[in-house]
Automatic annotation (TrEMBL):
Keywords, alphabetical: Cell membrane, Membrane, Transmembrane, Transmembrane helix, Transport
Membrane topology: Multi-pass membrane protein
Subcellular location as annotated: Cell membrane
Domain ABC transmembrane type-1 as annotated: residue spans: 102-291
Domain of life: Bacteria
PROSITE patterns: ABC_TM1 (PS50928)
Membrane-traversing stretches: 36-57, 69-86, 106-130, 151-176, 196-216, 223-248, 268-291
Name of protein: ABC transporter permease subunit
Family of this protein: Belongs to the binding-protein-dependent transport system permease family.
UniProt cross-references to SUPFAM superfamilies, sorted A to Z: MetI-like
Plastid in keyword set: no
Amino acid sequence: MTTQTQASVQATTESVITYPSPLKEFWQGFSRNKGALLALIIVSLIILAAIFAPLVAGHDPIEQYRDKMLTPPAWAAGGLAAFPLGTDELGRDIFSRLVYGARVSLWIGLMSVLFSMIPGIVLGLFAAFYPRMLGSAIMRLMDIMLALPTILFAICIITILGPGLINTMIAIAVGTLPSYVRLTRAAAMAEINKEYVTASRVAGAGVFRLMFLTVLPNCMAPLIVNATLGFSSAVLEAAALGFLGLGVQPPTPEWGTMLASARDYITRAWWVVTMPGLTVLIAVLSINLMGDGLRDALDPKLKRAA
């Protein structure tokens, strides 16, 4: 092999660039945020505790131990190892109620996000593809819904539908719907005039194919980040509605209702109100930090800056 041929082969080899897989690239972007990694671990533990609640919790969440009412946590004076976080005013194990309450709170957050995200994406795509026919009407409706704060709007809906688990999900979902509609519309309008969409249209793709198979996949990054942050907001709003007595009703264990029943014992038994409050704080903060990590990993501008 001649020297010129060897140099040509070497130059060709050096010019070949290997790109990491999308999953590896995502993890590299996500793992740069150490707070997001810690939050991922905490959220994973909460989810696992909720899934395996019968194994993690030591007691039935609604079982009352009348002779153990307002027992302090295990590390405090008068505490019992059988009740690591103490008992409430009815003698129920706080740790078990928090673990089972994670099931309810996370389920409300998940279903609220799905109930708002799916119709929000559909309405946002229609508003982007039919700006004159449907876009104006849809966006004006969203503006009207945004005139009220989300929690106040949810309270209005709960007042009409009545308290309960399903109605809480619906109320939170309707209140957060405008954010998904506006975000989807903005992301879709930024993609509509790009070359790949024009090529698909020239190739004969129909409107629905353009919407859901061509444009939507390229709009998912901001929607995923918004859904993660919306999940934490839904958990917080569910707790707020439960605290006001408009959400999940007793004796079902839910973090907000636990706070509501404990407010009369703040001075007498600090653990009854502190434990649910800390749980809500840690869960919401961890999910928000995860959302920041997802934004760092999915936002192309942040990738280039890194």
